[in-house]
Structures are given as structure tokens and as C-alpha cells.
């Protein structure tokens, strides 16, 4: 799945398949400017940072079990959001510090380091990565991902895929080659 935010005419947090199909709103009320997302891959939760409402919220992958984790002025200058174990990691653009915040109640805020001009951050750790099973976009014997000549996108399951073409090309009638 692909998770993303939109705060155009109607603010929302959405999810879709990697090929863009099955687009679903998972948060669409009490939301103004969702600017960052973080996923808890193990427990299947989506966290978002709303800088206008000065809050961090959470829902499960289906948009249920909504909770406000943090509310208040300390959110105002945050950008980027990552989650690992019991903490959020974010960047305060006002004082240029990387912060660690308890993801269960918003307490235990600790500045870890200063860093100029950051806008986003990610946590890379082996335990934070899910195991990869074989999938429909694996390279075929000719080295083409999922048998697609340009781009292979996973669809509704790891066994299904959709081929797409780079800009300027059109997908052929076989659904795999680009012309």
C-alpha cells in the first residue's frame, strides 16, 4: 500500500495500491494541514502531523481507532515524522533540532542533535523493515521487472502487478511493453 496526505480543497490522509488503484480516504475530518506521515509497519498504524491543528494523530490502516497523541503549540515548527519502537523522531525547524518524543502520550521530549535545513527524516534499522516475500514485480529471466518493459507497480496483492510506461511512451496491447 501507498499512504499519502493531501491538504488541497479537502484535507485528508489516503491510501491506495502501489499502482494507484483502490484509492481510499482513511482520515477526512478534523484535519487541516497533514504534512508528514509515519507508518508502524508491525502494528499497522498510520501517524500524521497536522501543523495547522498542532497535533499528531493515529489511525489503523483502515482509518479506525483514531486517537490524538499530541496536541498543542510544541507541534507548530515540526516537519518530518518517523516512528521507531516507542518514539517519534521529528525535526523542529525553529531551533533546528532533531527531537525524540514518546509516541504513546507525547511526553518525554528530548532534543538529540542540531541539524541545519532538514525537512524530512527516516529511521533505517533492520528491525523496522518487514520481510520481503517473492512478488509480482521480481525480475523475469530477461531482467525486466515483472515482465514489464519500463515500470512494474504492485497491485492489490503482492501476486498482482500493473505495468506502466515512462513519459512519452504508451503501453502496448500486451499490457507489458511500451511503445
Automatic annotation (TrEMBL):
Pfam families: FXa_inhibition, Ldl_recept_b. It comes from the Eukaryota. PROSITE patterns: LDLRB. InterPro entries: 6-blade_b-propeller_TolB-like, Cueball_EGF_LRP_Nidogen, LDLR_classB_rpt. Gene3D superfamilies: TolB, C-terminal domain. The gene is Lrp1b_1. GO terms for biological process: canonical Wnt signaling pathway. GO terms for cellular component: plasma membrane. This is LRP1B protein. PANTHER family: EGF-LIKE DOMAIN-CONTAINING PROTEIN, VITELLOGENIN RECEPTOR-LIKE PROTEIN-RELATED-RELATED. One of its GO terms (molecular function) is Wnt receptor activity. LDL-receptor class B repeats lie at residues 1-43.
Amino acid at each position: 500500500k501507498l499512504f499519502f496526505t493531501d491538504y488541497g480543497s479537502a484535507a485528508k490522509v489516503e491510501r491506495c495500491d502501489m499502482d494507484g488503484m483502490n484509492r481510499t480516504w482513511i482520515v477526512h475530518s478534523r484535519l487541516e494541514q497533514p504534512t508528514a506521515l509515519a507508518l508502524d509497519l508491525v502494528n499497522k498504524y498510520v501517524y500524521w502531523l497536522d501543523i495547522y491543528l498542532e497535533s499528531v494523530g493515529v489511525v489503523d490502516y483502515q482509518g479506525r481507532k483514531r486517537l490524538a497523541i499530541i496536541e498543542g503549540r510544541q507541534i507548530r515548527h515540526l516537519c518530518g515524522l518517523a516512528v521507531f519502537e516507542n518514539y517519534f523522531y521529528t525535526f523542529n525547524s525553529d531551533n533546528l533540532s532533531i527531537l525524540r518524543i514518546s509516541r504513546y502520550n507525547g511526553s518525554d521530549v528530548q532534543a538529540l542533535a542540531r541539524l541545519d535545513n532538514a525537512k524530512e527524516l527516516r529511521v533505517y534499522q533492520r528491525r523496522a523493515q518487514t520481510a520481503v516475500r517473492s512478488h509480482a514485480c521480481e525480475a523475469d529471466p530477461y531482467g525486466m521487472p515483472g515482465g514489464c518493459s519500463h515500470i512494474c507497480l504492485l497491485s492489490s496483492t503482492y501476486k498482482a502487478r500493473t505495468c506502466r510506461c515512462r513519459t512519452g511512451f504508451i503501453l502496448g496491447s500486451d499490457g507489458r511493453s511500451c511503445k
